[in-house]
Amino acid sequence: MIAGLVLAAGESSRMGIDKALLPYRGRTFLETILHTLKGAGVERRAVVLGHHAEEIQKALGPLEAEIIVNHDYPKGQTSSLQTGLRALINPDLDAILLCLVDHPAVRAEVLRKLIQCSRESAPPVIIPTFRGRHGHPVVIKRELFQELLDLRPGQGANIVIRKYHDATCLVETDEPGILLDVDDPETYRRLVTSP
């Protein structure tokens, strides 16, 4: 089984508002990503919240996902990844589809391609690309979970991912949204005004 894990615990300091709640095409960023995961056939979906966790849950109401709260979110994104992994790990979990809340502009078709690659060739890491540039979300297989859990604060998941560069499956897509990291008001403006 592949589980979708959405990291949405950060403070959104450059944006000035919680990115999970930003509107995009009739839904919030977080709702959009969960809807896309569901559309791609990902049955188990989980969200890691941290900063303003209660407010986000109240604003969005019931979500079709497990809610995991990372009380150590000030330690950075890796602590949220580790908190989410610990909550998800069970004998049936083969991989996670790691999504970041600031990458809402990815279609379900892209996720299906990543999942297909995971099932067909079983590489440790699967990364979507657009015109040769690496994007998100990323599939990470079970054999790397312990290495992710062993990362220290301040170390990013890229340390583990880069280690397996030669075994990584790169999936070329026609989806520029995999590169779009909505981190500030200007990037958000470009996102919502693009066709």
Characteristic terms for this protein:
195 residues; alpha/beta; Spore Coat Polysaccharide Biosynthesis Protein SpsA, Chain A; two-stranded antiparallel sheet; 7 helices; 10 strands; 23% strand; globular
Give a verbal description of the structure:
With 195 residues, this protein is of the alpha/beta class. The chain has helices at residues 29-39, 53-60, 77-88, 108-121, 145-149, 158-163, 185-193; strands at residues 2-8, 23-24, 27-28, 44-49, 66-69, 95-100, 125-130, 133-134, 138-141, 169-173. It has a single domain (2-193), classed as Alpha-Beta Complex (Spore Coat Polysaccharide Biosynthesis Protein SpsA, Chain A). It contains 7 helices and 10 strands. The mean pLDDT is 95.
In short:
By secondary structure, this protein is α/β, with parallel strands linked by helices.
- In round numbers, the mean pLDDT is 95
Structural class assignment: alpha/beta
CATH topology, what is it called? Answer: Spore Coat Polysaccharide Biosynthesis Protein SpsA, Chain A
| Strand fraction | 15-25%
Query: Any idea what the radius of gyration is?
Result: 16 Å
Q: Could you list the spans in which at least 5 consecutive residues all have pLDDT below 50? A: none
Largest sheet report: 8 strands, mixed
State the separation between the terminal residues, measured CA to CA.
Answer: 35 Å
Top CATH class: Alpha Beta
- CATH H level: which superfamily? Spore Coat Polysaccharide Biosynthesis Protein SpsA, Chain A
Helix content: 25-40%
H-E string = EEEHEHEHEHEEEHHEH
Number of strands: 10
**Dominant shape:** globular
User: Count the helices. How many?
Assistant: 7
